[in-house]
Amino acid sequence: MEISVILVVGFCVLLVDHGAQASHQSSRNLQETDQPYRTGYHFQPPKNWMNDPNGPMYYKGVYHLFYQYNPDGAVWGNIIWAHSVSYDLVNWVHIDHAIYPTQPSDINGCWSGSTTILPGEKPAILYTGIDTKNHQVQNLAVPKNLSDPLLREWIKSPYNPLMTPIDGIDPDLYRDPTTAWQGPDKIWRVIVGSQINGHGRAILYRSKDFVNWTRMDSPLHSSGKTEMWECPDFFPVSTSSTNGVDTSSQDKSTKHVLKASFNHHDYYILGSYMPENDKFSVETNFMDSGVDLRYDYGKFYASKTFFDGAMNRRILWGWINESDSESDDIKKGWSGLQSIPRTVLLSKNGKQLVQWPVKEIEKLRSKNVSFHDKKLKSGSVLEVPGITASQADVDVSFELLNLEDAEILDPSWTDAQLLCSQKKASVRGKLGPFGLLAFATKDLKEQTAIYFRIFRSNHKYIVLMCSDQSRSSVREELDKTTYGAFVDMDPRHENITLRSLIDHSIVESFGGEGRACITARTYAKLAIHKQAYLFAFNNGTSSVKISRLNAWSMKNAQIVSTTKRRKSHL
Ligand code: DQQ
């Protein structure tokens, strides 16, 4: 029997055996009544707290996502690795938890980590354990049964912990091992996030056998301008093709990306890596020279990539935290979403990454509305009718009719987020603000605006992208931070594009074909379900044209549970 047939049968048995269809049905009913903020196609567990994505991988036809999870409540605590599997990155089955405290080296928590596929197609997880002394240490776990494509059971190494906080490492600031990579010398390398003497640092280890690890004298990289680095990620991107690159690839036409999570954001830098001496020569540094490269300029943290060999692409997952309060989360019974998985590539000019939602998500598109060549005169608000505006995918392209109308950029306006928070969607401009109003009531009392403003600076045009949550809900107590990013594009040569994935309490927006991404969490009180509308708008004095707009209602992803969990960790 073919492996795919076995898997289909296996999944079906799991689904039927445990009445998963019924549980999905009841959670959908819940969503439509008491739970306006639960999502239809973003990944969520049925209940409780979720944070970082951990160890994503593709193995024998199945995508695996592990994540930091509290099995006992909707706030952070009792952290274990929950586990879900999928054929398509869209529909998921929650299976038994993979890694939970059992050993002295993880008895107080199983924190973030990564998967490496060892030769012979053998996955291995390196993760941070919190030991009996509450110290952070690094542990190894491997699948019990490699012929089970769902990898349901994991065995911890008897040699754990493999790496410990000695020789000046602070035991509270030492965590989140990356996917390891093998050099041409067949030796494995891995980095662990830390803070030493107040500075963020990627401690480098090497190993011949994946069990005995030696710390290198020099870190892979460090920065005097940041504090603790959480969840580092280090991987190659191709400079010559749009394919993803395996973490251990020896391909020379690559650059390397180092990502670190700090200050509530995921920042990255680009450079060239030489495995011969483990030198990473960077092009720019973290928080340096005004270049502030982030995966996402809104909510997006503790992300992780993996190489998907089946589709030759690198995929990025990020944790999207809530913007409401802890007591709201306890009332909702859950907290945290995962982003839609995104493909990551180097941009054509090689200066940054570009991201795009995985193609598979498009299969959820159903009813479509489209228009072409619609002029948006100054002050216009145009409804995008006939789709489920609370659960939608929108792709729009704006043509600028009078570029010479662009306002002059004051040279002191270098902080995009600050500029957006001063020039919110309600503040009239010349070329912009124009864009979309998501989760809007008919009277626009509630609205989440994602929009652009175009400025001129000497002979260049500057494109600012904003996400303004200030009117996203009549509830006052929420965090309604406005986010912003400059989009590296020249509007003389291309239209301004925006793709937004709207899903009940989240809007993930991709500007300029994925050169700037902004994710927002919103909690409309009035604009929910059928009371939510979607509009295109132009609040600038200069007209713009929608050269094309496509919007789709999105179907629910099938995200189901198959197991009756025991009360605590299992
Ligand atoms: N979350 C994990 C840590 C990581 C942090 C704990 C980042 O391993 O540093 O849940 O969100």
Automatic annotation (TrEMBL):
Pfam families: Glyco_hydro_32C, Glyco_hydro_32N
Signal peptide positions (record): 1-22
Gene Ontology annotations for the cellular component aspect, listed alphabetically: vacuole
Record-level GO BP terms: carbohydrate metabolic process
Catalytic reaction list: Hydrolysis of terminal non-reducing beta-D-fructofuranoside residues in beta-D-fructofuranosides
Coiled coil spans: none
Subcellular location: Vacuole
Ranges where the Glycosyl hydrolase family 32 C-terminal domain occurs: 360-553
GO molecular function: beta-fructofuranosidase activity
SUPFAM superfamilies membership: Arabinanase/levansucrase/invertase, Concanavalin A-like lectins/glucanases
Residues covered by the Glycosyl hydrolase family 32 N-terminal domain: 42-357
InterPro entries cross-referenced by the UniProt entry: ConA-like_dom_sf, Fructan_Metab_Enzymes, Glyco_hydro_32, Glyco_hydro_32_AS, Glyco_hydro_32_C, Glyco_hydro_32_N, Glyco_hydro_beta-prop_sf
Keywords, sorted A to Z: Glycosidase, Hydrolase, Signal, Vacuole
Presence of keyword Signal: yes
The name this protein goes by in its record: Beta-fructofuranosidase, insoluble isoenzyme CWINV1-like
Protein's organism: Populus euphratica (Euphrates poplar)
